Amino acid sequence: MVRSIITIIIIVLIFGFGSGNAFGELQIGQNGLTVNGFIENDFGLKLGHDITKRDEFNFFEQRLQLKTKTYPEWNSLLEQWMAKIEAKADFTIDEYYNARTNVDLRVLSLGIAPADWLDLKLGRQVFTWGTGDYLFINDLFPKDYESFYIGREDEYLKKPNDGIKASFYADTLNADLILIPVFEPNTVFDGQRLSFFDSFQGGIAGTNSDRHIIAPAKTAENAEYAFRTYRNFESYETALYFFRGHYPSPRGYLNEMNRELFYPRLDVYGLSLRGPGLGGIVNAETGYYNSRQDEAGDNRLIENPMFKFLIGYSKDLGNDLSLGLQYLFEQTLEYDNYSKALLPADFVWDEYRHLNTLRLTKLYKSQTIRANLFVFFSPSDLDGYVRPSIDYDLSDVLKLTLGANLPWGEDVHTEFGQTEHNKNIYTRVRYSF
Amino acid sequence: MKRFILLGLIVSSVFMFNPKSFAQTVDEIITKANLASYYAGNDGRSQVTMTITDSQSRIRTRGFQILRMDVQDGGEQKYYVYFSQPADVQDMVYMVWKYTDKDDDRWMYLPALDLVRRIAATDTRSSFVGSNFVYEDISGRNLDLDTHELLASPTDVYIIKNTPKDAGSVEFSYYMISIRKDNFLPVKAEYFDKQRKLSRVVEALEIKDIQGYASVTKSKATDLANNSNTVIDFSNIKYDLGLEADIFSERYLRRPPRKWLDQ
Predict the structure, then answer these.
(1) B112, B129, B258 member nearest A71 (Cβ)
(2) What is the pLDDT of residues B185-215, one digit of tens each?
(3) Which residues of B touch A82 (CB under 8 A)?
(4) DSSP characters over A156-212
(5) Which domain covers residue A370, as residue numbers?
(6) N vs C: which end of chain A shows fewer Cβ within 10 Å?
(7) ipTM of model
(8) In a domain, B1, yes or no
(9) Domain limits at B250?
């Protein structure tokens, strides 16, 4: 199915060139429903050795993305509400899993503005807020870390949700309220494609991992809510956040004997500030993570409450060179209770974690070449992750990417240390239309 | 009171009949040129096609729409730039709150990530979307950053030399600008590099009257050093649309104001 769709699209694109549209857009119907997207091929050569499904590569796929939008006017109310329907789907052939095909519906939403002060967006969509660069405190929306570590485009770090977003606008204050009826977890490593620290295996695990992650039941009380209120003070943006839901990654043991993990309940209270400073842009964000099923921190099976703080700075250094720096501080609260509750064989996590990031971006040749370096480094965990990449726009429609994912660590159980066997170098060829 | 009016009439008629003896000062000229090029109407909209041709004659195209609103004439402005071409930047929005007394505020909206990114805006001499135009060509260069000198005044243009007060902050040593006397539109700007060699030329290729405002509808920037150029075509220009300030906010980054955009 996916193969035939991709083949058809390629044929349409090739023969569509004659029609004189410089951008090779697909036009469906006479009233101009325009379909855009891209086809790409990705290959990631694996540099490390472990016991995942394959040792030669960890990223090899063909991807077709199609997207469209329309403004329905067949109903006077929809027209009055400035309705917009958006759809975006990815069709992939994943050679890692023996040419497994998949359809990933990323967006299918209806946006309306029923009042001057209200926007509503319903359906499948991507939610983002917060001020960090690859670091998230108040953005608890689901991420695909597998995509991130193998080198898929940044777009795929964010997973879509099925939900409703209501945005309220007043002169003095704006607010967003998001309702997610069914919990959507982060995509974390499962040992098939990427190896990771599996405490049940006592170290880094691959296909030998046999843990089960139990998702919350699809009940009304497991629905998630995210709230943000924000306003600008001249050039400064301030925001307050509240989230009620679950840890998006499995941070609790449900049943150790059955090797079952789960997503404990989580409330997050936070705030952020962003604006000009020190000749660049400064941002700060903080969050208090209330682990609702372990508020006292004395349950060794569930993550403790935490305090997180982030400060960032970015600056344009001129000549198409820009710099970004961030510092993230994390403190496990009720650490004494956690320490006391530990059993002798347990792995011990530190009370404090410090993480620094660096981003350098330099553009060459009239901005057709983009060299980017992103580095995570934690002096407390003694681990890090280097992500260099070069994008080259051969033309408006054809882009080549060469990049690498180079995590490392002194210990096997830290965030980046556990992934150090998954190092890769990847290439991408993307044709956009 | 009547006397003052009478005096005023006499003074203004003297001005009108003796334009040469009451020549405009250079500051008046550049102030009028700035208003004519960047502040026509209270607001404006334009569809923009940029054609970038590199030294090997390879062509790249950028398509976007600009919405502009003036907060004060000659001062603060807001810009909303909605990209449509090429496909990989479609629906991206670039928003600027331009100030004359401090760095501009700039945002970029990336629809695939639903991400509103804040952009550090210090280097206004960098290329705008990979073209031969720099940011300051698009939204104007602060008049106070240069000293201005009227060098010549042939029949139809004023020729003004502009020298940066802070030479270290820019890539040129000075630039010459030709401003038309009839409508105060700059028709040519020539930038000279640190060796005082001509390095970049920005020209107005076509000027049309739109709603009573003389407007540049086609302009070209040429880089002599690397033999590349960019042609901008402005179409569907409209002024005094009655844009509201809230369009230039996060709400409309996420939901482009279709009412004002020409889709």
Answers:
(1) B258
(2) 999 999 999 999 999 999 999 999 999 999 9
(3) 258-259
(4) GGBPPEEEEEEEEE-SS-EEEEEEESS----B---SSSS-EEETTTTEEESTT---E
(5) 2-432
(6) N
(7) 0.91
(8) no
(9) 37-254
